[in-house]
Amino acid sequence: MDIQPFKIAISDASIDDLKQRLARTRWLETIDCLGWREGTDAAFLKRLVSYWQHTFDWRRQETKLNQLPQFTAQIDQQRVHFVHQKGCGPAPMPLVLTHGWPGSFVEMAEIVPMLADPARYGGDPYDAFDVVVPSLPGYGFSSAPTQTGIGSAQTADYWAKLMRGLGYEKFAAQGGDIGAGVSSWLARNYPERIIGVHLNFIPGSYRPYLGEGATPVCAEEQDFLDKVSAWAASEGAYGHQQGTRPQSLAVGLNDSPAGLAAWITEKFQAWSDCHGDLEQGIGLDALLTDISVYWFTQSIGSSFRMYVEGRAMPLSFSQGQHVQPPLGVALFPAELPMPPRSWVERSFSVQRWTTMSRGGHFAALEYPEDLAKEIRDFFRPLRENAR
Question: I need a labelling partner for 298 at 20 to 30 A (CA). Which of 19, 101, 271, 355 fits?
């Protein structure tokens, strides 16, 4: 496997072009009282775009990100960008962390050192991990797929090859959003290599067996299904669009930074535990660093492919199938609809199920210290299996 060191180096010309486009934004006429009800609040977006153009310092964020040890690996036809932070402890456990949409590896920047060097943050050095954070195919600095079929299942195959190329035959997996799907596919398809899986979201494509011979859906599970249906009707248009006709949308978002910011910001505001105040909950710099990665790499269109492929190949199970590696789940209060434990236990070997006190869909970005502790606690008793 060809592995090369990598540093982010966006050209001055690209930064100048971004600022010029922001200055030429054509603003919509809107109804002032709408707020966030029909998408990103117009007043907030204007302030965000102004901050992006005049105040946000990409070079400062680029320098911070480049403090993480980054590499690229050629895996089959795919170039995969990844962070690889070696752990500080007597026996670090290999751990692959996978992000989702509209996130990126940027989401993991704060949690990586907490997992790699827990003693530095008041933890136990025996809980250290060798942390690998790949960018999904078509996201950020990973190359865009040149053929169909590169979804969560194929990505799990890439991650398995990447970890073997890094010298890790057995490893742990963690993820949320699409990263939860990739981690689940790893557990399903590579049970002999996966020490355990920790998720802070249950993938929307997950379908346990509900056919003849299955335990009937209980009241709690039916309530979850009803909530998912209601959420899809009121909030799920983006996913349907990105999974069915993504490229028409992508043309506009790839050409307009204000449009891209509106599309992505809407989800950070709606899915994070910010109590309506995104600026205080996540912060403009963190938000714009993530959006800027999409902009500079022109990856918004290729990021949508995961939605297309997820519809084509959902994470479904047939009668008798059961994922063997142990599973831990963290439920954050502002997360999208999450199923009850019984629903997940239809297909997974659940060993830990924790209700968190704060946080939302972007847990590693919102409250990295809380998620890091939960990950360490889950994997601590599994470390014997890593030997």
Answer: 271
Which of these is catalytic: 81, 99, 198, 361? 361
**What integer is the mean pLDDT of 85-102?**
97
Q: Which of 158, 190, 238, 307 does the annotation list as catalytic?
A: 307
In this predicted structure, the answer to whether residue 387 has a pLDDT above a threshold of 60 is no
What is the predicted pLDDT for the residue at 33? 82
Instruction: Answer yes or no: 209 catalytic.
Output: no
CB-based contacts of 48-55 (< 8 A; 24+ apart in sequence)? 48/261, 48/265, 48/284, 48/287, 48/288, 49/22, 49/25, 49/257, 49/258, 49/261, 51/284, 51/288, 52/18, 52/22, 52/257, 52/261, 52/288, 52/291, 52/292, 53/19, 53/22, 53/23
CATH code for the domain defined by 2-386: 3.40.50.1820
Catalytic, out of 130, 177, 290, 370: 177
The answer to whether residue 307 is catalytic is yes
Question: Is 177 a catalytic site residue?
Answer: yes
Q: Taking 80 as the threshold, does the pLDDT of residue 289 lie above it? A: yes
Q: pTM of the entire structure?
A: 0.96
